[in-house]
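Q: Here's a chain of 508 amino acids. Please give me its 3D structure as tokens.
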Amino acid sequence: MADSPHFRIGTRGSDLALWQARYTRDLIEAGGGTCDITVLSTQGDREQVQAFEKLEGKGFFTKEIEQALLEEHVDLAVHSHKDLETRQPEGLTIAAIPPRAAATDILLVRPQSHAHRAWLPLKHKAKVGTSSVRRRDQLLLLRPDLDIQALRGNVPTRIKRLREGLYDAIVLATAGVQRLELDLSDLVQVELQPRWFVPAPAQGALALQMRSDDPKLVWLKRLTHESTAASINTERSVLRALEGGCQLPFGAHQKTTSAPLRSFLQGPSGPIRILSDNAMDALHRLHEPKKQRILITRSPRENDVLHRLAKASQCPLIEWPIAKPVAIEQPEIPSWTDNAPNWVWIGSPGAACMAASWVNKNPGLQIAVPGSGTAEAVADVLKHNIAFCGSGDPISSWKDFAQDKAVSDHIAIPHSSESLMRWKTESCAARISSWAHYALDTEMQTPPITDVVCFTSPSNVDRWKGPQPLRIVAIGRTTSSALLKKGWTHKVASHPDAFGIWEALQPD
């Protein structure tokens, strides 16, 4: 084999495809090879109106390029790996996989349509453009109110349509946006993390495809990034077993070969989300979700994300509030002759429900919440948009919120009569007005026996009247500490939100 082989690269003509071809050319030339680039047209490029699920066949962006390879018009095809079928056409092979870029999706939002809500910062019933059924189904899992509309075209065209006001927001692959280095300073950008928005298998990676009998194939293999190739193989092996392509509402992501595999599949009963150690375990759980009875110690929240995940996996979800919020008939709300509150800290879903009438009577308030669970409750009962949403941990979230507040700020905090009042232990320059807006009714019956119990607070652990549960999940560190005092073995949710809880609830 010559030390300086020449490659004829075949690619689509979009800005992104040309970037990918030039990137590959640079890699080859850095290794001592030479290249030229040939632009080819594909079905996906020519048909810019119909949604993918309405187009016939598969390989909308690859078939013509693969045919050019087989007919030896080009030597090398550069593809977005996620666009390829899981089984290679006879005579072709993936010769190399360069290092992966960002695997995530990104939400681009018009400022006029931005509103801080749980999971997605979009106004109610926002119109969101996407050509992907996977993205559509995950958006609706997070926000059933959204209006999902088909969106086709290359990346600049899609962004242009967003700016023209045809959509409130659009979803794109982060890697494509980053590679084109577009000026998006006029748009709100939200990277959708794989923990709760699973990308397509192999998203962010390139596939360098060649003829199986091309002697230059051996030379090109040096461009493979082994860790990227291993993770992508795991992701795509599940897709291959499901016999799906880009039309299947399926996502899979493995950050590294030592990390667990996250998978998403829109099944007949709804969205199936699983966390697994390997591809075969993921496939088994997607085909046969492990049914279990779940109890969570909180007040009922109909049709939230956790409910929808449990329903799709045919897992009965029982909400058992050990301490039920009860309104104080005449709460001692402070009166202000000057400097009325401009912020309100809603520390729990109970506070959102119990203080809703007072908050809604004060339209100038900005709302702060510790995490997405409270944000979901706020979105249901309050007329305000959320201005601050923390990580989910109440202590660190309060610190993050309070640290930049000025002396001129005034924070109102309605709380339960049994609140730990964590804000009093942290310094804050702002004025704080707090009062007990509701009490907790703790006269609860013995809970039903279930397969697993998720405790949502230390007080719920202390007040538990039933026997030790078979399996236990703690929503966070403070709840975990209370369980450790009892000597109860348990798992701790990675995040105190629906997805962190759901992953912890899954059997080992």
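Q: Can you summarize the key feature?
A: The chain has 17 helices and 24 strands.
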